[in-house]
Amino acid sequence: MNHINQIGRDFAIALLTILLVSLAGAQTAPSAQDQSSLGDYARKVRKDPGTPKARPKLFDNDNLPKEDKLSIVGEQPPANAGGAPPAVADKAAAEAKPAEDDQAKKQAAWKAWQEKLTAQKETIDLASRELDVLQREYQLRAAAMYADAGNRIRNSGQWDKQDAEYKQKIADKQKAVDDAKQKLEDMQEEARKAGVPATVREQ
């Protein structure tokens, strides 16, 4: 009887051991299979470069969206009529204004010089005409005096006095013309040093 009991216990232990081994094998088999599958997949990815991978999206001129609007941070400053931002336009205007003011001052200075030179030329023209009149009058009086020998003898004292007066007037007027011409030359040289163009100085 004891022997049968012993066999029954051994049988039960053996059966229990088989059961436990079977359960353990059932639990570990899927794990080993999973590990084998993951290893195979990793090896396949390394061998096959064409396997799709998740890559970040990069934009360049060729694939930049044309229909969609790109989001930017903040607001772009409004452009002026010329297309430049206000700060750039203001700076350009600020730089252009002094240049315009300088040019306006130059134009005004040149105009003043032109007016002074024109006035001096008119002075020379007037003095030259007066000199020409005096010379013509003297020539007419001298011709009349020398044409009448009797009159020249009778009025020789008076003629000599008038002759001296005319000659002095002519000399004075000639000096006035020469002085006016010299003054014009001096003014033109001064204007040249002041940067007045030749077209303005010589008009």
Highlighted features:
203 residues; 2 domains; 0% strand; mainly alpha
Architecture overview:
Helices cover 77% and strands 0% of the residues. The longest helix has 62 residues, at 86-147. It is rod-shaped. With 203 residues, the chain is mostly helical.
Task: Give a nutshell description of this structure.
This protein is mainly alpha-helical.
Measured as a percent range, the helix fraction is: over 70%
Rg value: 60 Å
Structural class: mainly alpha
Order of helices and strands: HHHHH
Number of domains: 2
**Share in β-strands:** under 5%
Main pleated-sheet profile:
none
Instruction: List the uncertain runs.
Output: 29-33
What distance separates the N and C termini? 155 Å
Mean pLDDT: 76
SS field, number of helical segments = 5
Number of strands: 0
How would you sum up the global shape? rod-shaped
Secondary structure: elements and pairs:
Elements: H1 2-47, H2 86-147, H3 149-154, H4 156-193, H5 198-201
